[in-house]
Predict the structure.
Amino acid sequence: MKRIEPLSAARRGVPRWLRRALGPVLLIALWHLVSITGVLPQEVLAGPSVVLTSAAKLVATGELQQAMWVSLGRALAGLAIGGTIGVSLAVLSGLSRLGEDLIDATVQMLRTVPNVALIPLLIIWLGIGEAPKIALIALGTAFPLYLNVYAGIRNVDASLIEAGRTLNLSRSAMIRHIILPGALPSALVGLRYSLGIAWLALVFGEQINATAGIGYLMANAREFFQTDVIVVCLAVYAFLGLAVDFIVRTLERIFLSWRPAFSGT
């Protein structure tokens, strides 16, 4: 039997990965063009060739790899702590009216406080070691997960809840088989938001007396006006963020394969 393909799939001639890569490639080509023509001076922003040379030197000495692992470890540690707190509070608040009354108002108040403004307090409370850096990331990642998991729980289809009651499911079975799976799409969206905020918080956190990490490399490069090294560090931040986001997108495809979704035309 001949397989019937959607019209949108039949129209595609260029592979999707190639189309997705086209934008960044054109941007880098434009950057290279304005650099070699002198429109963009090297002291303002180093060109791609200089940046690649600097990256190769940092890789050869092992400095870049070490900084990447240190920064990634901080981001994941902060995400683990903040995610655990955010999801736990969201479950308590979403499943119980009493929990909502006790938790939600406080969380809504605290999430409006800029995390960067808390840096002086974190330094006073936790010192200038790793603790304030991880705490800043944890604070930044907890709130998006709380909001999305809470919204996901409260927006579960009421007809599914009624079906569970008709089947005489216990409260624990209702939570395990209906409520939490129904909230999973919102939870994964919250995870993607939290990952983005984790990298932003990491940039600020690594300015707190860091002695290792991507932020430490950037701080040293700033002192010596090394724009090429700064661009390398920014590219590493972007690469790490993209890699972790790819992992979350993969999890979405695995755990949400049951949910039909629009994929564009």
